[in-house]
Amino acid sequence: MAHLLGAESISLSYPTKDVFDDVTVGLSDGDRIGVVGRNGDGKSTLLRILAGRTTPDAGRVTRRGGVTVGMLDQSDTLPEDERVGHAIVGDRAEHEWAGDAKVRDVIRGLVRDIPWDARIGELSGGQRRRVALAALLSHDWDVLFLDEPTNHLDIEGVAWLAAHLKTRWPANQGALVAVTHDRWFLDEVSTDTWEVHDRIIEPFEGGYAAYILQRVERDRMAAATESKRQNLLRKELAWLRRGAPARTSKPKFRIDAANELISDVPPVRDRVALEKLAVSRLGKDVVDLLDVSVAFPDGAGGERQVLRDIEWRIAPGERTGILGVNGAGKSTLLGLVAGTVAPTSGRVKQGKTVRIAVLDQRLAELDDIAQDRVAEVIGRQRASYRVGGGAELTPGQLLERLGFTSAQLSTPVKDLSGGQKRRLQLLLILLDEPNVLILDEPTNDLDTDMLAAMEDLLDSWPGTLLVVSHDRYLLERVTDQQYAVLDGRLRHLPGGVEEYLRLSTAESAGFDTPPPAATQPASGAPGLTGAERRTAEKELAAVERRMARVADAITAQHDAFASADPFDYAGLQALQQQLAELESEQRHLETRWLELSELLE
Predict the structure, then answer these.
(1) What is the 3-state secondary structure (H, E, C) of 193-253?
(2) Banded model confidence at residue 543, pLDDT cuts 50, 70, 90
(3) What are the boundaries of each domain within the chain?
(4) Which of 325, 415, 474, 577 has its Cα between 20 and 30 A from that of 302?
(5) Do residues 258 and 237 touch, judged by C-beta distance below 8 A?
């Protein structure tokens, strides 16, 4: 593969920090690199150096003649008076760009909801970001550098971007380097990973899952001071390997040692124990939305229906992810649960012992303590916090678990980074001991290590958890089921995010979609005839037999993975496809079993 560009022995220092020390990296045709590392360790700086926007103190960046480079950075600015269309396609004639399938795909995937003639100055920050990304992708580049490209994209947008980048160049042509905290996106588009840490760049083969596997092995062999970090990564790896075994099969090295590391790691959550704790804290009643609809004035004397006919009985210990496009009504739905939004019709019933807390995107609750030092803020809280009914942690230990150092305890809250404020906000909420926790886009400003730490803490949280997030990895990691807000209605997704993307694509394309499924099966069966009951009982027995066979088949499939040749990529891919089909069937069978069981009560 032809060399495109590279950095030779680069070093860079700022007055308060050394960023890189004698680093050499290169890019060739076909490279697809994901860049990970802690906030502040130099990921964005690396992209700017490679793209020629920042000059290193020592060393040089070389580029093959004729190679074109495009970059999206976090501070992209577009002229306030420029029109959206001109920003994206420039002075190209309409017949020229409209006849280009790639440009049409970019416009449809990123900016179809933004007026073509709107001024950039009239757009929201998220819209401006999407226009900047569309402007970049509508041109041809040999090398693309993307710094947090998934910011302000919803789950559909992230899925579209991943698909676009995977097919943008022919095989073994072009190069991509992406800095992102979106771990699903990293796994989807990256064939190699660079970790930026301690003034170096360490390469790993494979995407995020493979990187975690190799990093566990590296940390196992490292000094004892890495032990706490290693334990967290082992837990992360255990989830990755159980959830999608083939994802870690790409690297060309033996994985037996890494598999041995997680052989005694239990599932990330003890669902039965957590549900028992949740019931003991909440009782059986949490929040019920009973035939709820919400409408707001449309400004023209009428009403705009946001939610309609919502029937949702939230259970103690439930861990639910909510999906939907921007503006679909997700925040309104959470507002109904939290009691900050009143229904236009229907009724919201809240249990007597319910204590709801919301981790939102605004960080407003930190305004009153902005001048206080972190230690002072923590000192005013409770003396200990019990993790999942088990060991008690002091607030200081919780801070450490969330990545704070002892030196940061003396830092005023106002001087914390965005990610540190986010973690402090979560800590203060947990110390207040709510039993229903609502997370609204909780991943903002957090790097991959801190996301793993937050997920680890949530694994042992014994309450009802509701999550709205565009971070697909987090959503699938911390929740046990997903719902979608589609056309104002709440729909259960037995097939998870993949089912949502299929439904969303069909809806946006104007295709007919199946009618929304009831979010909760009707309880009781007062109108069931004898014949109908016998038919339902027969189907229930058949479903139970099929569930047992599918469970055995899934176990056999995992055994097949364990004994498979790790270099037989085609064979592993076939096994993964078969496993995915079995797991999808299992989810549908479980849903049908629940429906029939409720029907026969």
Answers:
(1) EEEEECCEEEEEECCHHHHHHHHHHHHHCCCHHHHHHHHHHHHHHHHHHHHCHHHHHCCCC
(2) confident
(3) 3-224, 271-508, 530-600
(4) 325
(5) yes
- Name residue 295's amino acid: A
Q: What is the pLDDT of residues 224-273, one digit of tens each?
A: 445 556 666 777 776 766 555 445 554 444 455 555 555 555 565 655 55
Residue 471 backbone zone (phi > 0: left; psi -120 to 50: alpha; other: beta): beta
Which pair of structure tokens corresponds to residue 498?
Answer: 């993949």
Residue (of 184, 446, 462, 466) closest to 314 by Cα position: 466
CATH classification for the domain delimited by 271-508, as one of 3.30.230.10, 3.40.50.10540, 3.10.100.10, 3.40.50.300: 3.40.50.300
What is the torsion angle, in degrees rounded to the nearest 10, for the CA atoms of residue 561, residue 564, residue 565 and residue 570? -70
pLDDT at 397: 77
Confidence band for 459, pLDDT divided at 50, 70 and 90:
confident
Same fold, 3-224 and 271-508: yes
Between strands 464-468 and 481-486, the pairing is unpaired
Tokens representing residue 9 in the block: 């022995």
Question: CA 225 from chain center: how many Å?
Answer: 29
Written in H, E and C, the secondary structure of 135-184 is HHHCCCCCEEEEECCCCCCCHHHHHHHHHHHHHCCCCCCCEEEEECCCHH
Using alpha carbons only, give the angle 174, 470, 189 rounded to the nearest 5 degrees. 20
- Rounded CA gap, 283 and 275, in Å? 11
pLDDT tens digits along 467-485: 999 899 999 989 989 999 9
What pTM did the predictor assign?
Answer: 0.70
CATH level 2 (architecture), domain 3-224: 3-Layer(aba) Sandwich (3.40)
